[in-house]
Amino acid sequence: MRRPLRLTAAFALAAGCVVLGTAPAAAKDTTVPGSMSTAAVNTTRFDVPVPAGVVPRAITGVLTMPEVVNNGVVTFRVNGRVARTVDSTLYTKVRIPVTAADVVADGTIGLTMSSQGPAIAGVCRPAAGEASLRKIALTYSGEEQAPTSLAGFFPASSNRIDVLIAADADDDLLEAGIAAVAALRSRYPEGTEIELGTLADAPTTAVATQRVVVLTVGRPGEVTTDVAVTPEVGVPVLTIAATGEDLGAAARGLALTTGGDTLQLVNDPEAEGISGELGVREPELERTLADVGAGEVALSGYGLTSQVVEIPQDAFSSPVSELDVHLQGAHSAVSDPDRARLDVRMNGELVGSKTLDDSGVLEMDFLIPAGKLRSVNELQLVLSAVTPDGLPCAAPGSPPIEVDLDTEGSTLTATAGTGDTGGFQLWPQVLQGSLPVAVRTEGPQRFAAAQELARVVGSLQAAASFPLDVQLVPADAFIADDRSGVLIGATTADATSLEAPLRLSSIRLLNQADSSFEVTSQEPYAVMEAIGPRDSADRQVLMIGGWSPTGQTAPRTLTTKLIDFLVSNGWSTLTGDLLLTDASAPPFTVDSTTLEQEGAAAGGEDEERSYARWFVAGVALLLLILAVQVVISIRRDRKVAHSDTDDEAPHPVPAGPAYLEDLEFREQNLAPEPPVAPAPVRTPPKAQPKAQPKAQAKAQAKKATKATKKTPPAKPPTETSGSKAPAAEPPVSRTPAPKAPAQAAPLKVTKRPRNQKKKGR
User: Which range of residues forms the domain containing residue 619?
Assistant: First the structure.
């Protein structure tokens, strides 16, 4: 049943929040999703859609090249005619003029780009350099012809699509909004902006191909649609009203025409209402190139010409461990086998090669192992051909060498299993078409979390080959479920229940192949984790959450930063099973096997501290031993220095007993030495030894001692006073001995310890 709704009423909720302006009459630009590249290709083609009712003026874009080719050019052609030639450059903005006459019957303009080097022998210019054109946009004037029916509402290419629901939407309406984003993503290429928002986010300006889808609550048992244009703004709006499960089914009906036999599509000319039942798909392990979305595959020319066919694993509705590829088709007959060759690469690696011959029949078979497979695979065919003269280009009008592939007869036979695939690369094929999702966040932030979830689901849908059946379930029910799905706003308890590799606590260290990333316990972070066994396709969970020192989840800015990275780079670029970011670091992927969590680190901190104490004690002991050794060495060196000084004295004294060297001992215990008679004058010997042996010194000292004992003490002087008393013999004098004569050799004095007592007289 179809019941029109008044568009003004649908937007009444947003009337007080936005101001609708008047669209300017000047020329406008509408972006065209996609890009062009001549990497290993002579010519690349891109069809630019032109909205009905507008007059095209130019096609603009940004041209980049990794290096400049001397005397090289990049040539742009519109439907075959040369429209613009640009010198080889690293970066420049280009504007290619077009007119309404360039629009062909299907409403597009065919734009081709080729890079060429200097001319060879003045005959031809071979391909040279890699050129890329991105940020493609169509400049136009006039106003787009507004759609009047459900069947013509969605254009072939869209600048932007907004899915709008009430800010206080219940779970049925949230599920419908997320499902609508996924359904629309399945029909438009990556690069198309498709966002979930509130009615207050309604656009205030309009460009061609821009659309708005409004989901609202209607009458029970009815699904109604209305197509209109917003007043004064000019954006076409599709309003869908339903309740309960009907609302979600209507949102899923916005999907691609390849959604399935049970899906009533909005582009059906006879459709008045929309509904959809997708359900779980059974694995289909044998597909043709046409089944996976490959269009016409044809290569032609000289030099290098290539074409890429995407093969998502989701096309088989199961993870794949290996892939048997059979290619068949036809090619130009070549008599010289050295002139042409067809190479086949999977994800950049060579997997097959064939030399073209004079049979004209193309047959190739090869096996692609698990190590070369990704969630979305690129099968690239590269034709290398030269002219009979061996040149990489031919004169204009020369017949090219061609290869045409039969996409219906070329088959892909998969073997179910994960092989070496794990983490993010198991998605979205593990879903088998069914995608349960959950939002843990409650309160005012719940809608914001649902918006982020819609972007993640949209990125998964872009990597899938069939529409996903999105179902919103309560978070606790999701945790207890056994199906693979997505959880956003996860808590530490959720991470523990799901046995996540990162339990949403402070991280100790993340080691990578070429660097380390450390997060302190005071720095919030956000993370997306792929949870599940690596050796099977059992339940896999995509969990999005974060941590902050306050115990709350990470700020939304970090989650948004994480998902921005995912959306801009695409699902196929993710590696490992963790995607992390914080306030200072850009998002990066890592494998959880290199992760050390705080719990494990804290468990070993006490042991590390005990080891640290023993280590410090050992170092201190070694330093003490080293200091003692230094002191001993210094003392030994000083003794050696004193010994060397004594040996070099001008008049060395023969060594004797130790007590003879103690001056204080001699003064207290030995009698004074007798006066020494002058020595007779003798002729000095020719040579005098520097020092006497110790034995001779001892003998001389003993002899001197005996001589001292035998020598009688000197008689005291007689009294001159006339006393008649006889003089008595005085006792042995204990007074200090007189100093040695000047001729005597000096004595070596040793210092006495302070506690040694002097002997009395």
Answer: 436-628
